[in-house]
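Hi W., the NAP complex you wanted:
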Amino acid sequence: MKSPFVVCGATGNIGSRIAEILLAAGEPVRIIGRERVRLGRLASKGAESWPGDIGDTAFLEKAFSGARGAFILIPPRYDASDFREYQDQLGASLVAALSMAKVPRIVALSSIGAHLDEGTGPILGLHDLETRLGTLKDAEVVCLRPAYFMENHLWSIPLIRNQGINGSPIRGDVPFPMIATEDIAVATARLFVEGVFHGHHEVRYLLGPRDLTMSEATRIIGEAIGKPGLKYVRFSEDDARKTLAGAGMSGSVLEAMLEMQRGFNAGIVRPTRERSMENTTPTTLESFAKSVYAHAYRVAA
Ligand SMILES: NC(=O)c1ccc[n+]([C@@H]2O[C@H](COP(=O)([O-])OP(=O)(O)OC[C@H]3O[C@@H](n4cnc5c(N)ncnc54)[C@H](OP(=O)(O)O)[C@@H]3O)[C@@H](O)[C@H]2O)c1
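Structure:
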């Protein structure tokens, strides 16, 4: 009997699809999330449920024991009172458990910008996670550095519905790569199934099909939801603070997000390698907007 792959964040965007793809390929999978009931859908497809908290190292060590590989992430937590500390605790717990359980192959969800040690907000926690993973001497580690998620655009649905515009503090004219989370899941599952790891510690970028500005992205989304000519407006940070605090985001998370957006505006949150066949992924924003975004926009009515 084959030993399992462990998937953290298995009820989330990326983890749920990794688990589904691995199960469909006939691989044994252990799934981690905080609540058994939420893991039920994948359990009914044959996954082994491991409900528990990533911050609980003893739990994680058990969940990781005997695994052939593990997908790890630091999940978002929008109400964290000290976001850096939250990321630090989860990163430390993950790496300690991986080390104790001697997991041989690890795929870690990082981000573009993770090469930097300042000025990137939440990506700093991923920089620290990559550094910690570098201490695992006996494991083969791939740090995936995906682009800005296309799913982030879903946050703008209430704004478009209520005010008829799209906007954020990110400049409308700075191009950067955007990726559908489906493409991250497909790449991760392929890595595990094909076993194409190249040694101790490797960074791989995943960059979507092309770079886009927020203005271009808004035009594409507008066309997909029957609002051609939808405008993108750059908001002040103060306006964004009020909106995000109103949506329940803690001051710590909110300031980190604004710092990251400044990083995009300054062009520092970017890949350190050129776009290539290897790091270009297939799902276009046009296709994402027509399927995922348009559906979410309709059901939010
Ligand atoms: N947004 C971007 O543009 C971007 C770009 C690059 C990288 N990233 C990285 O991608 C991550 C988000 O990935 P995603 O979209 O797949 O996440 P997601 O959809 O928000 O899912 C988070 C998952 O983590 C689980 N979870 C949350 N807290 C947990 C805890 N303490 N213990 C155990 N499980 C926990 C959640 O399950 P339950 O709620 O069921 O427990 C859920 O399955 C970000 O945190 C960031 O590190 C984001």
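Residues 237 and 258 are 7 Å apart (CA to CA).

W.
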